[in-house]
Amino acid sequence: SAAAPFVVGSLADSHGFFEALAVAGAAFLLAAVMWIRIPETRNAELR
Fold it and tell me: Which structural domain, as residue segments, surrounds residue 24?
């Protein structure tokens, strides 16, 4: 995301680097899990 550098920088400034990178890693993991759960639409009939 384009906002990630700003968010990580803000969190690192206020809470420290460990917490900032932990939040970024958790967000990345959540995005990966959500991406896996998206249904395949290849060869699907258009409605």
Answer: 4-37
